[in-house]
Amino acid sequence: MPEGDTAHRAARRLHEVLAGRVLTRFELRVPREATADLTGETVREVRAVGKHILHRVGELTLHTHLKMEGEWHVYEPGQKWRRPGFQARAILSTAAHQTVGFDLGIVELVRDERDAIGHLGPDPLGAWDPDEAVRRLSRDPRPAHVALLDQTSVAGFGNIYANELLFLRGMDPRDPLREVREVVDLGARALRSNVGRPVRTFTGVRGQDTWVYGRAGLPCRRCGTIIRETALGAEPGRERRVFWCPTCQPPAS
């Protein structure tokens, strides 16, 4: 599942092959931008902010978001795509490489990046201000899991991080967030550790990478209690899967 570390890892790879190069192909397969063509323009840089990826090309920025299923691939000329062509939403090529964005949740060209990312909170992998992150999260009265997923508080924490961080801090995901500073610091360290890894891990044990995420009905790796699952969301229709250990994460008294 794409999270902040996934987006930053993808942006670094895209920057390696595109920055400073002239585009020989530029194709966006979404109705709103279908006629856009930046062929001949030079890619200045590619960077991520939270879960958003920004290709700065000429005077414009290609703003994309991986959402749930998105991926960016890098290919050499003539190399076969690893996903079907009908899933491609963006294609940017240079003389040496072809980059393809599959199943991207957002694809748009913007002149002012604030229109795309101005709402985001601090990013632990970018412009990081832990005090501001703590301030924003501290005033959120919603369930802890919902608060951690709000990108206006911290940009980059996704569903896996929310589940795992709350387990590691021993908090019931349905309670309001507490120990905010500790959660923020732990989350920032986890993102920074995982961004350089091929496989995201929270346990440090190969093949057992999560404590609770995706483990409903299985015994807790720490105490043996059966992991439970529910759904929480900021609004109806936006619920996310939530996993917790009722022994290691007791309700607040």
What is the H/E string? Answer: HEEEEEEEEHHHHHEE
Helix content: 10-25%
Number of strands: 10
What is the 3D form? Answer: elongated
Mean pLDDT, as a whole number? 95
Give the biggest beta sheet: 4 strands, antiparallel
- Which class do the helix and strand fractions yield? alpha+beta
- Sequence stretches where pLDDT stays below 50 over 5 or more residues: none
Strand content: 15-25%
| First-to-last CA distance | 33 Å
As laid out across the biggest beta sheet, the strand order is 1-6-7-5
- Enumerate how many helices there are, as a single number: 6
Rg of Cα set: 20 Å
Helix and strand layout, with pairings?
Layout: H1 4-18, E1 25-28, E2 43-49, E3 52-57, E4 60-65, E5 71-75, E6 88-93, E7 98-102, E8 106-110, H2 114-117, H3 130-138, H4 144-149, H5 159-168, H6 180-194, E9 228-232, E10 240-244
Antiparallel strand pairs: 1-6, 2-3, 3-4, 4-8, 5-7, 6-7, 9-10
Helix pairs in contact: 3-6
Describe the structure.
The protein has 253 residues and is α+β, with helices and mostly antiparallel strands. Helix content is 23%, strand content 21%. The protein is built from six helices and ten strands; from the N terminus they run αββββββββαααααββ. The strands form three sheets. A four-stranded antiparallel β-sheet has the order 1-6-7-5, covered by helices on one side. A four-stranded antiparallel β-sheet has the order 2-3-4-8. The radius of gyration is 20 Å and the shape is elongated. The model has no long low-confidence stretch (mean pLDDT 95).
